[in-house]
Amino acid sequence: MSAEPAFLLHRKPYRETSALVDLLTLNNGRIRAVAHGGQRPGSKSRQRLQPFTPLFVSWRGERDLKRLTLMESRGQTALLAGEGLLCGLYANEIATRLLPLELIAGDVFAFYTALLEALPIPSERALALRRYEWALLEALEATPRFCTPDGNPLDPQVRYRFDPQSRAFLPADNGLEARALRYVEQGDWQHAGLANVLKSVMRAALAPHLGSTALRSRELMVALARRRQP
């Protein structure tokens, strides 16, 4: 097959000197493959298979586990540190956890690429992450329904919480304002004061698909926030 743009999502040792890798590809979604020499010290495969590095890859195999036949760099590695690095690790972790193998997800690839460009810029980081999370939900056909479970529109005078079972919203005294949820539905995500609402909606919508195992990247974010407290 011809080389395809990709990013490394996850890598772990496999047998003696190989690596088992999860890659996000442009045309084939997430694939899992063996990278021969991917764990050998000093090998070109190991040097290239780094998080946040744009790659060209090709592979062989018809089953779930492929064999990489080509790994080449196609650009500079995104230089991430601190919170930006943790957000990048989170993006990799949820894609690995959520995307079924070989589910075509071109929008996820596009928003992941845009996310890596935004992560070094604190003012752009959160919104790019929300766009990426939304793309994942769309790929899973799991985006929220901005109505009540029976299909009625949200009452502007009522607060709501997300209901995972129906993917809709239920009245809740301490919930989110219906007006803010309307902005989310319309894609007007740069509206002032919407950041926390967006984060709450995405986290609630993603939770049923992530399962009960805690995200390592999220634990690291909490630890970083605690260290920053006076």
UniProtKB/TrEMBL annotation:
In the UniProt record, the gene name given for this protein reads recO
Q: What does this protein do?
A: Involved in DNA repair and RecF pathway recombination.
Q: What is this protein called?
A: DNA repair protein RecO
Family the UniProt entry places it in = Belongs to the RecO family.
Whose protein is this, by species? Halomonas colorata
Tell me the keywords, alphabetical order.
Answer: DNA damage, DNA recombination, DNA repair
Residue ranges of domain DNA replication/recombination mediator RecO N-terminal in the record: 4-72
- Give the signal peptide range: none
- Which InterPro entries does this UniProt record tie to the protein? DNA_rep/recomb_RecO_N, NA-bd_OB-fold, RecO, RecO_C
One matching Pfam family is RecO_N
